[in-house]
Amino acid sequence: MKHILFTGVGRRIELLQAFRNAALVLGKELRIYGADMAGTAPALAYCDYARRVVAMKDPNYIQKLLEICASDHIDLLIPTIDTDLLVLSENKGRFEEIGTRVMISRPEMIRVCRDKNNTSQFFVNCGLRAPMPVNNWKEYKSGYPAFIKPKDGSSSINAFRVENEEELEMYARQIGDYIVQPFVDGREYTIDIFCDWDGDPISIVPRERLQVRAGEVLKTRICMDRIMIEEARILCKTFKPCGAMTVQLIRDNAGIDWYIEINPRFGGGAPLSMKAGARSAEAILKLMDGERPEKLEVSDGAVYSRFDQSVNITETICPAAGSLCQNPERKKNTLKDEDKGQIKAVIFDLDDTLYSEKEYVRSGFKAVSDYLGGGCEEKLWTYFEAGKPAIDALLKELGREPDTEEALFIYRSHKPNIHPYPDVIEMIHDLRAGGVKVGIVTDGRPEGQKNKLAALGLEVDDAIVTDELGGIQFRKPCDIAFRILMTRWRLNPADIFYVGDNPAKDFQAPRQLGMRSIYFRNPDGLYGFEESSSVTVVDTVADLRKLLEAYI
Q1: 181: helix, coil or strand?
Q2: Quick one: which of 170, 193, 261, 277 has the most CB atoms within 10 Å?
Q3: Does residue 172 sit within a domain?
Q4: In the Cβ-directed half-sphere of 300, how many Cα atoms lie within 13 Å?
Q5: pLDDT tens for residues 158-175?
Q6: Final residue belonging to a domain, choices 413, 432, 447
Q7: What is the Cα–Cα distance from 252 to 256, expressed in whole angstroms?
Q8: 226 lies in a domain?
Q9: What domain range is 222 assigned to?
Q10: Side by side, which strands form the sheet with 178-182?
């Protein structure tokens, strides 16, 4: 299992999706963490865990990140915005001391990028062309139109084309610390570069910026231009970027490339290059395991157009019992008449949500013990509580390792002696009696999960074992099973509640789809307690029943 923390996740949903898909394709286990100051960034809905941090300019920012990385066993930290690049680069060694690698370039190169004066000179030193800046509008003598922007700016904020000296003076007073340079008219390009730990390029993908909003590309065309690719290689030889880097340039009407800026991180449009074949997310996962990524084939000429989509970051449901309410603006006994009837379907997780998975484990150990001649249940349980593969450990102790496959088969296929939690049968009955659809989405080996469902005798409208859809890649947080139930029931996601017990995987898909989620923080569960500020929390089935019935 690899743990990756992204700082400043913001709207980087496509980037996170690329990493999720890369782990799926490569068959690697990945847990994604997102750091955000407000806790409302849309990309947090696509993370396994969200982590609150202080402002990037706060003196305690690095210390807070170090604490997160240590407690969450973060293997790799990836920054996504300019603001914290330099401070992360300067403190890279502190993270490495606790076992966290930071995908960041050297501090001296970060400084080159953060000051546009240095950036332009760097391009020139590499033998490339760049419109040279001045820092005082009164000294600008290179003709109009001109271009003025902040010396350390990003996302095209406070960047303006100016037509004459009067406009230049006005914008100079407005911006403050600025540069002025000749305006280059032509086609805009971004080069997405991805390098290994030592700065050797793995992929270089130029793309034309066909449509841009607030500095971020909305529509782009992949353009595997030989000249741009070679110029990017020249830059990499000197810069030696660690990981991702984006370079912006303008090709003027005479076909001359003028280089504008460097961002030593994943650019907002980098996932578009990944979709075209530059699968840098896969490359990172391979690099983390010491593998060398193979040469990547890119779809030249492909055009990508982006769109916006909303996700629910904070829950708004509020039960009649105020102690369960996660929204501070809704108080006790404020359930309104119009709130009733909101719930049209409930999807439950199975293990540790509707019954005790520990009871299933004990039942399986009883079956294995009977196969071995009896008297082994408690020893198996002792191994289990110690975090060891109990059956393997016991058979090794008994000198019966050849029986491993048969014992595992017995455990996985036995008819379990398990029971629903108190109130579960009544809760499901009342929901269905009120016209609410009830479904179950559960991960695991199909035969074992079906045996559990049969033993529990729960009367529900639909039950989906995700592995039956095509293998373990359909397990949560994959959203396919949820989409199937939405389609089968012909319901909007806002009319569906999802109940689960494992924050690591249960709530990501429902939140992305627009369902409302309830975290059953099961003290008896295998996953124990987890903090969760983004979903409503209940601690007993009785409270869960009360909450759901309030919305029938």
Answers
A1: strand
A2: 193
A3: no
A4: 7
A5: 889 999 999 999 999 989
A6: 413
A7: 5
A8: yes
A9: 110-131+184-305
A10: 160-162, 146-150, 178-182
